[in-house]
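ENTRY TYPE: paired fold submission
RECORD: A
CONTENT: sequence, then structure tokens
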Amino acid sequence: MHRASPVASLLIILALATALAFLASFLTLYDTLRPAPPKGFAEPDQLITISFILDGHPQGVSRPQIDLVQEASTGLESAVGITSNLVRWSTDGRNGEVSSEWVTTEYFGGLRPRVLIGRGLEPADHAVDATPVAVLSHRFWEHQFGGRTDVVGQTLSLEIEQPGPAGSSWERVGAVRIVGVMAPEVEASFGQGTAMWLPADPLVSTRFATMGVPDIANRIALYRVIGRTTGERSLDSVERELIAGLVGDGADAIVPAEGRLRVDPGFTFNPPARDEQLRQLQLLLTLTLLVALVAAINTGLYLLARAPARTREMAIREALGATKLRLAQQLCVESVVFLLVALILALILAAPLNGQLRTLPFFQNADWRIGTILDPGIVGILTVVALSMAAISAAAPIAVMNRSGIHSGTRKLGHPISGFQFAGTTLQIVIAGVVTAVTLGLAAYAWELEQRDLGYDRERVVVIVPVFAQSMHFAQNSLEAHQSRRDRVRVALDGITAFEEIGFGLPVPGGKFRITMGVQAWSVDGESVDVQSVSSDIGYGSTLGLRVLHGAWPEPGDPSSVVIERRLAQLLFGRADVVGETFEVTAFPGEPPARTVSAVIEDVVLAHPDDDQDPLLFVEATPFANLDRIILKTSLSPARVREAIQDRIESGALELEIQDVYALDAQFLRIVAEDRARFRVTLVAALLTIALAAIGFYGTQRFLADAHRREFAIRASIGASPSALFRLAILRAVRLGLPGLVLAAPTAWIAVELLEPGLLPSDQSPFAMVGTASIALLVVLLSAALAPAWRSAHAPPAAHLKDD
């Protein structure tokens, strides 16, 4: 049978392999991302991550706050701070730049990772004046030291990045003595790739020694917190105790009352992000399982498609002595061979596919653990799925064979459609309808995001990001200093005719870095309003095309005049036209608390259109004005802009170091990249599901055409025209597909309704998605039925009326 239709067999195998390859890839991603006890640690089930969440993002803590965490719960055995940093190393003519983990005192004693050679870091190693030491990762040890056991006691030269008043530089720590090598199963605490573990206290003191801020090593929030519980209490109990002591307005509070503290098993750098990534994977796994189910049903329908043609073969073999069991075994072997070939091909395809899927925007910065597609657990699950699919696909042909006899295919007017064919066809159509409706919903949402009014112009706007130096955080420049710096840059750039407008400010809507200063404003009723302040000069609004509704942007040098959004005007005064009105805000140093409204603009979206955002207050300079972005209105590409500015820098006309140059419209597409990627992945699943459903429906129609050829021949011989026979075949196809279409509509409706609000456009009714999906499926099914119907209507009657 398969030799007779090699193309169809190949298509079925490719469809099965594709479905299994996606399933293998998503299973591997899920396995390497889900919370799991870290390998290589004693009693790993007791290891936890303690996260302090503010505005949906985990916040760092200072060195003294780690001690507060330790003291806040009797259920904690140890609390450890960890921060990852790049370091430069060199020894014996070899050198490089690698990631390192700087850990606090209790890392080795409290968490107890397994050390293969030598020892871990001891409390004495964390003293500020201690001899620098390091513990190497197993991978770094093997690659750079050849796995030599005499590495303990050797030294390597180490440099760390040190911020200073003139910017960052690399500072030599000196000769660092190697005291140990980690076991191979101990990975980085967060993610992969750590080359060495270093004591944090002396390195942090060295790193920030030139900042000129007293006790900065204990004040700056560098650390994420991991730890070990005593094992005597539940994580929920430990979490509640930590929340009671560390969240709120108390003296020891680490996050304010609007923040959140959470305790998670294992080590996770960003638990909220991991939760979202796992949610995406669960959605994709569900879609993949549906596609795999459709592929299995499709295989069964394909094996049934030529059942009438194989009835004679089976009957003759039975007459020659083959038992029903023997014939059933043959059909089972055919299905298993199909699935095994598909499984092998799937494992070959899954490895590169897995790498591509990891680059999807919603998986960026994920904490992947080391894992492969050939992991025994993954291969076991795939084997079970493949065998289940083989059982599903073999069930129908066996059922048909059990009804067959030696003359069953010779003189019957037609074979009735089997229960498997009816149920399989219906289920395929339902699944295709659900996946198609969900895909249409995601497509509508992605399109609606790109069309939404964000309050600014994205076209022909290029943003320049100067090099960032941590010392800028601590510079106390006056408004006059900010104006002078902006004027110098403006004069240097004014000579470039392609630059139509120039502005300065931070943050830029849609920009890569959202740095704002939270303040409070008071309405006329005395109510406080949380506000985000934006540093902006007079060119900021015109370059970005911010729409002024009332008033005008204030002239430079007037810190008391501000620009506010329409929604802030409504919150403060209950109306939009409030030019000349005054209100008070929490003032920056040296600025008046009373502000006068100079202009009211249309609301502006800083980041993702669906993100929650406080109202914006535009002032001439915030404490972060040193980090201003330069905003240009120009037709030049970012690359040409960089070249033009670099020419000014090299000529001495401009003193500036460029970190990045990007187009604002391209950056906005990066902001909605997750939504676009979600749609593209779902689209692949939808197209594959629809294609499989169409092939399955075509196979069933081909089966019916073969099964009813005598009936159609008799109708033709007594005068039925080809057009009448064609209409009859199409009518039967519609009848077969109608139950699936009827069931697909409410099922797709439920699936669309179950999608979270953030995945569908707010102004779109599910009716549109479900209706469009139903119409599309009807067109696909009718198209699949055309060729078999044409064949039935135009077959010569004599060829089918003669005896077999």
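RECORD: B
CONTENT: sequence, then structure tokens
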Amino acid sequence: MRVYEAEGLVGLCDAKSRSGNRTRRIGLEELAIIGPIVEGYAHPLRPSQKIIYERVESAFEDANKARESQGLTPLVMPSRETIRQEIRKLDPFHTVLARMGQEAARKKFAPVGIGLQVKRPLERVEIDEWTIDLISLFAKSGILEHLTKEEKELLGLNKKKIRWILTVAICAATRCIVAMRLSRSASKNSAVQTLEMITQDKGIWADTFGAISPWNMGGPPELIVTDNGSSFISVAMRTAMQDLGIRAERCPTGFPQMRARIERLFGTMSSSLMPLLSGRTFSDVITKGDADPEDGAALTPEELSEALVRWVVDVYHNRPHEGLDGETPANCWNRLVETYGVQPAPDMRRRRLVFGTRTTRTVTAKGIRVFGVRYHSEPLARWFVHAPEREVEVRWHRDDIGAIEVNFDGEWHEVPSVFEEVRGVHAEVWHGAVRALRASFRDEAESSRPVGASRRNPWNAGTLEWSHNVPEEQWGVRSIPFITSRYPLWDQPQIVERMDAGRFYLSDTKYGYRETIVTSVLDARPQHVQRITGPAWITMMAAAFTGGAFIFPTFSMYVPAIISGAFAIVCVLYWLWTTTAQVPEEPTSDVGLGLRLPRYASGPNAPGWWAVWITMLGDATAFTSLVFGFFFYWTASPDFPPTGADHAGGAALVAAAVLLSLSWLATRSAKATNRHGNVRQARILLAVGMACTAAGGAGLYLAVADLAPTSHAYPAIVCALAVWLGAHLGLGLIAQGYSLARSLAGHTTPIYDADLTNTTLLWHFIVVQALITSAVIGLLPGWMT
């Protein structure tokens, strides 16, 4: 009562909460054992709490055994909860840093403030690339099982994994998507095209795909933020931004939070786009089931683009956004544009200079021709009269072929077309009109033919050769088609029209060469572009002289045979020098359908390498026949080799074998040295190889010089083997000299080394023949007798 009267109701509270022994039971000795082991929890191997407890338990057992031997009191083993509490006392940041790494620690403990503050539309635009795995995307949505084989081939879904690159730009202030490009690979072109799309009103895309809402978000941005991808740091991208007066900011690698808006957008697309792909946009594909593919719409890249555009314009832009406090991106754009406005889009001339396709043309008295359209102006005509050099830089833009930009007198000048009809015409519209006009002329020509004249595919055949007019047209195609079956004319509708329109591979050649595509052997996958020769007399002459070298000896006309062989070698070398293994103007070429292929190949990827390999295999069968003949005579004749017969000189033959082996080693080393960039050393090795080849050939001659091939079958077949090897040594010496000359002329480099690679392959066969021949004519006769 006294406490109650003195302190009030507080005095009635008991003190049971302070009862019990609260002193720590673990002493300093126990802590000394526990501490280092518990600190081991913060380790990159990420041991579990159970493992830490077992380590503590083992340490205490060892300590107590030592104390027992000393007559000391054993230490108290701490409980699992005690160990868990000690682990929880570790510094959280350093624990996560040690166990999970710097990136995980930074993400978990980074302080979050109010974030980046942007007020104006296009004040900050973030651009990034998203890799779409269409195999997973379509498989999860159920679309994949409804696609035909042809549709999968068209989208590239026949592979185990196919990726499309989606380049997206987002306005940081409004969260509006201001540009989006879908491509098969990340490149500087896709980045520059995305930049151009940012500056434009994209209503034409929304209208084309039937979107309900407008896509009017566009204009030159103030700042563009990207990562350090090669497409974003390319010269073309940096030049375009500089020409438009746009500042650039590149975030360091590994910090996606510095581009949080674009990174979050990709997550939204990944989770929200799936229902759209399996819904209205592709409903015709889903519902067609087992129906005839020709009766239903085929899934094309255009339809995939339609799904993306309609999701952006009709779904994403009109969905309340958490980062905008529930306001939709479209409403936020309209509100901020009304308040702050945006810069006007660049006019056509500026777009032509900044984003136009760059090429060169030669000015003539008729002006400049691009796409079959002539361009001329008075300033260009005045310059043409006095200019010593007529080649100029040209830039044109696909949206308007009514004018081009030409650089002369150190300035860019707008040169209009001489035809007013093409002013403001899109390049695709012009191409379509030209194709339609040519088709109408072709149809008129077809209708005016005699009844018996040949027409294209009169029998409605299914194989590819019937895609041509025969025999009137030259054998060739406008573009190399991509076929998916044995009968493409039946199984791929409109394949002929697409071939004629140049919608497949190699529809045009940038440098005016005759080119084709080399594919893999089994599945015909494109590997590289092969430059091929046109009609020429040199190949006919080489064939004629080669035939003479083999035909004349049958009539004992050896001098004409030698002359024919020499001329054949000269013709072949001239043909090889002028037409094969040329260093390309650029490493790769755009061959169409979004595919870029190398313009040069060496080793097993090159047709020349396989030509040498197959030729040597055929050659090896003839050599095997000669060796078999040697053993046949030995088994069939009891006097083979005959008693007292002269044999090939042993010392000279051994020296020849050693020298030829050194020649092979020098050639092989020259190839490896050249690839490492030591061109001068490679040339020296080739010269050393040639010297060894010549010396080895001389040793081979000395080894058989004393034999009389007409006296017996034994010296005859020995000399035949020696002559066979000598002929190949001459071929190998010519190949070594040719490779050395190509290197000296700059046609063989550390990267472009097809000639040296083929020579090395040839010498693999030669050295094997040399060693076998040396063993057969140098070692076996002594063993046989």
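NOTES ON RECORD B: The first strand starts at residue 125 and ends at 133. Residues 440 and 446 are 10 Å apart (CA to CA).
STATUS: closed
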